[in-house]
Amino acid sequence: MQIKANDQQYIKGLNFSVYVTTWNVGFAEPPTNLTETSKNFLFGIDQYHLVAIGLQECKPNSWIEFFQTLFNKKFCLLNVITMWRV
Q: How many domains, the chain?
């Protein structure tokens, strides 16, 4: 997406960092403790302003609770989009 000249007035001086990732959890439940894999997956995540995590093959409610607990209110949930099982 290209920023038009007149759009500059709305975004001038706003810098933020974004972390975007995806994780196929294979219908597994969230971990009860962080393994090395999930630690590496989430390493340094608290340095970002916006975090977008896509999960495939998961039960959304249990994973939402997991991430909310994990992030300990450092982030707020903006949206959840679920798709039906293929």
A: 1
Q: Are 50 and 18 in contact (CB under 8 A)?
A: yes
What pLDDT score does 81 carry?
86
Provide the domain limits for residue 33: 5-71
Secondary element (H or E) of residue 36: helix 36-42
Q: How many residues does the chain have?
A: 86
Half-sphere exposure for 3 (CA within 13 Å, toward CB): 8
Whether the pTM exceeds 0.85: the reply is: no
State the first-to-last Cα distance of the chain, in angstroms, to the nearest integer.
31
Maximum Cα interatomic distance, the chain, rounded to a whole number of Å = 49
